[in-house]
Amino acid sequence: MTTKHSFQAEVAQLLHLVTHSLYSNKEIFLRELISNASDACDKLRFEGLNNDALYEGKSDLVVCVSFDKAARTITISDNGIGMTADEAIAHLGTIAKSGTKDFVSKLGDAQKANAKEQGSLIGQFGVGFYSGFIVADKMVVETRRGGTAASEGVRWISGGAGDFETEVITKEDRGTSVTLHLRDDEEGSSEIGDFLSNWKLKSIINKYAEHISLPILMRKEEWKEGKDNQPGEMVTTDEWETINKASALWSRAKSDITQEQYDEFYKQISYDFAPPLAHSHNRVEGKTEYTQLLYIPSTAPHDLWNRDKKAGIKLYVKRVFIMDDAESLMPVYLRFVKGVIDSADLPLNVSRELLQESRDTKAIREGNTRRILSMLEGMDETTYAKFYEAFGAVLKEGIGEDMQNKDKIAKLLRFASTTEDAIKVGFSDYKARMKEGQEAAIYYITAETLAAAKNSPQLEVFKKKGIEVLLMSDRVDEWALGFLNEFEGTPLQSVAKGAFDLGKLQDEAEKKAAEDAAESAKPLLAKLKEALKDKAEDVRVTTRLVDSPACLVTKEDGMSAQLARMLKQAGQAAPESKPILEINTEHALVKKLEGSVNFNDLAHILFDQAMLAEGGMPADPAAYVKRVNALLS
Ligand code: ADP
Ligand code: MG
Q1: The last residue of a domain, from among 242, 270, 289
Q2: Total domains in the fold of the chain
Q3: Which of 126, 335, 526, 563 is deepest in the core (most CB within 10 A)?
Q4: Does the pLDDT value for residue 570 go beyond 80?
């Protein structure tokens, strides 16, 4: 005897949209139904802890997927908890989840809009069990709850319109089977018919359910030779075979996993040949519950600099694969990290848009960031040097991007310096060996290359006084340092920027001498300023130089010459700002300058040479050459 039931209004509305909207990602029905089967087995395991009778003596839990090409059906069956008749009516006739209800009301709004918009909304949200109607025009569910009599089974049938029917059946095996009667394909297309293939179903299952911890079985196929010159064909046998891995590495206990297995899994998900530098595997509990398996690779991929590339994190929800490259789970400056996040809280049908807004995502992202930074903090020196060589420059982006962890990241930065050729000086190392009296600042210089930085005239006085200066030549240094004014209370000071004070490193006599030199150079400075008024913002006596006659510096708040050049090279507008020329009044060339007959030419040569010395180009190279040649001949 069959009984008719009406769907809850929201369900009917949802079904209408599912069946009438364009749907671009049809295959997800399989993901949804397998995940329901897997949930049902989880429930049985849980309830079975206290009630062994539920197992009915059969404790091997499996999901079977089969199809019948002639009948155009696909069946997904499980021996999980199953449903009573009341449960089937309630669970497959109403929508309980609040998220889905919201979604349906949104769909209602979209109903006034076009079908395409509705389709994309459905695509974003996913619709659980009802997604079967994307490909089927009839669904038949046969189910029986574990621990009940065989005669208490129920058959549920619906065509996906306003109502469904139920009837009592006898079902020997506990659990649920869902049979989809596939729609006819539109004229000339066989899109839905394509699902009636062993290969196609296998590949979808592998995509979404490879790591479901439950075996997923399909009938084995065999090649049958053709007789009498007929071509051979694949035939389906009665034998079942497991087609997924049936085990998610990350869901196993750490102690059961060998280093080799970790490395092997890394290679699988990263397509990297080299083993990773480090990994970290944790179950995180708290606000949101998830498993985290993160790897730091040992070498940089060729597209490391592509910031648009999505981070290499695979998102799973309860071991069902959801999406690749979940960039919302890792900040851009850690885009080199590979791994898996398996959330217990996110909904299966989470979309990219939803993911970006979700609180769980935010918590996971913060947790991941903290984890990676502490992995880096804990690395030994050799390993860290390897890491830094491959990814140091990318990590620096974090200084500008992650205000919350800026201080931690700053601690992880390494540079070469005037006393250390290898790129291994951290700000802390620098501070630890600062000279007595050097509390003024951590000094650094940026340049196009390490060699240019090292030979920069601005370093002369620091070399003379034995003060260490950090040498920076990564493209991002200049930009990143713009966000870092100090390190643990000590200001960072570019030696090529602003007027600066050597503070206690300069003794009274030196200070007096500098002041005197500035005083007596006043007339010369005035003449130079006039001659170079189109090129230099100001001309003043230097405290930086020892061997060179002149150098250029940037105003305290100005953009450095190095950054301005980079912007121009990148085709961006850099604010035009004139540098300050600093001259060394002790230098023979400068001494000769004052009374010289060709003062004007010499002034320009002095300026252009200072420009060349810092890796720049004279504004008018031809004029520069002409002036030098005139001087030489
Ligand atoms: P969700 O899985 O998010 O709860 P679904 O629409 O996928 O939503 O499924 C609705 C409900 O139907 C499930 O919560 C479950 O109670 C029931 N159900 C669906 N499939 C099965 C199954 N294979 N075995 C037991 N119960 C099921
Ligand atoms: Mg579901």
Answers
A1: 242
A2: 3
A3: 335
A4: no
Tell the burial category of 271 from Cβ atoms under 10 Å away from its Cβ (0-12, 13-18, 19+): exposed
Give the domain extent around 342: 249-392
Closest CA to 502 of 431, 443, 547, 456: 443
User: Which residues sit with their C-beta closer than 6 Å to ligand 1?
Assistant: 32, 36-37, 39-40, 78, 80-83, 91-92, 128-129, 176
The CA 32 to ligand 2 mean position distance, Å, reads 5
407: in domain: no
pLDDT bin (cut points 50, 70, 90) of residue 115 is: low
- The structure's pTM equals 0.68
Beta-bridge partners for 166: 3, 156
Which CATH number is 304's domain given? 3.30.230.80
355 SS3 class: helix
Listing from the earlier edge strand, what are the strands of the sheet with 415-417?
420-425, 415-417, 470-472, 442-446, 490-494, 486-487
Q: Are 139 and 56 in contact (CB under 8 A)?
A: no
Q: Is the pLDDT of residue 150 over 90?
A: yes
pLDDT at 562: 67
What average pLDDT does range 80-101 have in this prediction? 85
Q: Whose CA is nearest to atom 3 of ligand 1?
A: 128
Residue 568 Cα to ligand 2 midpoint, Å, equals 54
Q: Give the C-alpha separation, 633 to 174, whole Å.
A: 104
In the structure encoding, which two tokens stand for residue 526, read together?
Answer: 């005035």
